[in-house]
């Protein structure tokens, strides 16, 4: 089959389709906007390639052979499918779309980057669906390329270099505790900060060291981390119901009414969050729309750029 296709010129198939429809060389030439001798030459080539006369002289012009009749329907369908495949991509209509997007996002990324966009997404694209999955760094690049996920939200320092990317926010760290926490009623010294009991959010719920500890170690200090949890909701609940404090990304807690938030007493390097996607989806209208929605919502809500 492939050898036959390599021998064919697509223009010959278009000419054959016109000849079978018109059953007249002159009319087919006019339809194709070609000179009649050119169409006659192409008919000759088609006869040689297909080893069949295809069109024979008749009392009312030309009559197709049985081989030509067998070809007419499949040829028309194949050309229509090819034309559809090569046509410009239709514009995305969010109000009518039944698209399902699959996004790899940590607990932090979901809270800080997806939740602000969710209400707007549901309003503008009510029939679409969103699947949020927590993927480890070693998996999501391959899953993006293989189509298992469509978009990933991740830090710049761990972003695979071959993926397309767009910066969303530059995150900073803050100190959070329950609103009436007695230790935060006045300005907190670094010594008092280290003496408090701290909670930390760790993806596997087993880590007791984070960016804050690295910053303290550079000053020859350490703090007391007594609780490690695997998700943001557990961390907020722990802070609300105890005297624990936590150093967390600002986006996680800036809208939590039960928490008091202030700058920590030492500088802790923040991080940049990106959207990441594969080349195969770079120009996909639905994917472009979703990326723009997330980015523009974060800009509108005042996330740090």
TrEMBL record:
Key word Oxidoreductase present: no
Domain HTH lysR-type, residue spans: 8-65
Taxonomy, superkingdom: Bacteria
Pfam family, one: LysR_substrate
Keyword list, A-Z: DNA-binding, Transcription, Transcription regulation
PANTHER family: HTH-TYPE TRANSCRIPTIONAL REGULATOR LEUO-RELATED, TRANSCRIPTIONAL REGULATORY PROTEIN
Name of protein: Transcriptional regulator LeuO
């Amino acid at each position: 089959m492939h050898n036959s296709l390599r021998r064919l010129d697509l223009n010959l198939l278009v000419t054959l389709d016109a000849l079978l429809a018109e059953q007249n060389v002159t009319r087919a030439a006019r339809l194709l906007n070609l000179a009649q001798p050119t169409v006659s030459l192409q008919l000759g080539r088609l006869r040689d390639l297909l080893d069949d006369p295809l069109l024979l002289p008749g009392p009312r012009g030309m009559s197709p052979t049985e081989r030509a009749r067998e070809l007419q329907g499949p040829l028309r369908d194949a050309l229509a499918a090819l034309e559809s495949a090569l046509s410009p991509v239709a514009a995305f209509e969010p109000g009518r779309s039944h698209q399902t997007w699959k996004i790899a996002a940590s607990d932090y990324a979901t809270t800080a980057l997806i939740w602000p966009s969710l209400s707007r997404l549901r309003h503008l694209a009510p029939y679409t669906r969103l699947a949020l999955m927590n993927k480890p760094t070693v998996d999501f690049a391959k899953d993006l390329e293989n189509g298992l996920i469509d978009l990933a939200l991740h830090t710049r320092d761990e972003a695979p270099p071959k993926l397309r990317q767009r910066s969303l926010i530059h995150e900073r760290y803050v100190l959070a505790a329950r609103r009436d926490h007695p230790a935060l009623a006045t300005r907190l010294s670094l010594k008092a900060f280290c003496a408090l009991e701290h909670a930390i959010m760790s993806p596997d719920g087993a880590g007791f060291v984070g960016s804050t500890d690295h910053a303290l170690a550079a000053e020859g200090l350490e703090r007391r981390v007594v609780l490690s949890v695997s998700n943001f909701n557990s961390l907020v609940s722990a802070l609300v119901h105890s005297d624990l404090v936590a150093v967390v990304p600002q986006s996680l807690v800036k809208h939590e009414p039960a928490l008091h938030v202030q700058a920590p007493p030492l500088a802790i390097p923040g991080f940049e969050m990106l959207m990441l996607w594969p080349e195969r989806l770079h120009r996909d209208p639905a994917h472009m729309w979703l990326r723009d929605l997330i980015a523009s919502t974060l800009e509108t809500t005042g996330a740090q750029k």
